[in-house]
Design brief:
Actin, Chain A, domain 4, 11 helices, Nucleotidyltransferase, domain 5, flat, five-stranded mixed β-sheet, 38% helix, alpha+beta
């Protein structure tokens, strides 16, 4: 524990495409809000972040820009990301009297060195003393209580907002990993397109996300579910209410769900035989918001012939993993991407 003080002032961040979660060592998760920021175009200052800014998406006047600064798990808008991080770190510092914290950030496994540097720079400029990066699937595995330092194989499938990360982990390292830019956001887009095409109704992303959460499924449900939604009728241009059911949503998202299953199968095919037999025994662990899609575990189990488990609190696995890494840094130093750069 020499690297990190014991005063509980170290921060773990899951910099997700859809949500940003922050945990403080010893306190657990202290911030969980949408990765959205609203900026005043005239002054460049932040108007709102998180849930408040998300409410503004698609509803802002010309002077305000509401953006999701991360796309497909990586920084798409550097300035907005920096402002968002600065705002969040300032909030935490003020509320919990944190000085210049040491920060561990979960990043996608497919991240390039340029993107890595962009994250490091944003976090440093937001006031960090030191920044460590950890691959999201590794953080998710640690957060899902898998013993990553054991010499036996585990497989984690982390379905976030922007990316699906599949990784086989053994001896504190990622043996095989794939990152797919089909995840939660893509499923929302599928629902928007389906409703537009099949029902001639235009709906927004927020409505699509609500539909996915409430009645989205990967296999038919025992009892069909339905919900009423409101959108704009594309023929008349006027608001209209319609009812949709879970089997329609299953059809809408089936292509993207199959892409996720295919990437899991590809990862398994590339896994060394010794580790494959460990995985056969332990099964596949699902994490991330996508793990909550009804019957996805059943479908994945059918297609791979392996047991599939949904992690406890799948949405929090990555941020919990960053917190556990902070608590046991000496043992888990090998899992950090850039610990070798900063000793």
């Amino acid at each position: 524990m020499k690297l990190f003080g014991l005063n509980g002032k170290d921060i773990g961040i899951d910099l997700g495409t859809a949500n940003m979660l922050v945990s403080l060592k010893g306190k657990g998760i202290i911030i969980n809000e949408p990765s959205v920021v609203a900026i005043d175009k005239r002054t460049g200052n932040i108007v709102a972040t998180g849930a408040e800014a998300k409410e503004m998406l698609g509803r802002t006047p010309e002077t305000i820009r509401a953006v999701r600064p991360l796309k497909d798990g990586v920084i798409a808008d550097f300035t907005a990301t920096q402002l968002m991080l600065k705002n969040v770190i300032a909030k935490v510092s003020k509320r919990y009297n944190v000085g210049r914290p040491r920060i561990v950030v979960g990043v996608p496994s497919g991240i390039t060195e340029v993107e890595e540097r962009a994250v490091e720079e944003s976090v440093m400029q937001a006031g960090a003393k030191e920044v460590y990066l950890i691959e999201e699937p590794m953080a998710a595995a640690i957060g899902a209580n898998l013993d990553v330092s054991e010499p036996s194989g585990s497989i984690i499938v982390d379905i976030g907002g922007g990316t699906t990360e599949v990784a086989v982990i053994s001896l504190g390292g990622v043996v095989v990993s794939y990152s797919l830019r089909t995840a939660g956001d893509e499923l929302d887009d599928d629902i928007v397109s389906y409703i537009k095409k099949e029902m001639n109704l235009a709906i927004g992303e927020t409505t699509a996300e609500e539909i996915k959460k409430q009645i989205g499924c990967a296999l038919p449900l025992m009892t069909e579910m339905s919900m009423e939604i409101r959108g704009r009728d594309l023929t008349t241009g006027l608001p209209k209410n319609i009812t949709i059911n879970s089997s329609q949503i299953q059809e809408a998202v089936s292509e993207s769900v199959n892409e996720i299953i295919e990437i899991v199968k590809t990862t398994l095919e590339k896994t060394p035989p010794e580790l494959a037999s460990d995985i056969m025994e332990k099964g596949i662990v699902l994490a991330g918001g996508g793990a909550l899609i009804k019957n996805l575990d059943k479908l994945l189990s059918q297609k791979t012939g392996m047991p599939v488990f949904v992690a406890e609190e799948p949405l929090n696995c990555v941020v919990k993993g960053t917190e556990k890494t902070l608590e046991d840094l000496d043992r888990l130093k090998t899992v950090l991407i850039n610990s070798r750069k900063r000793r």
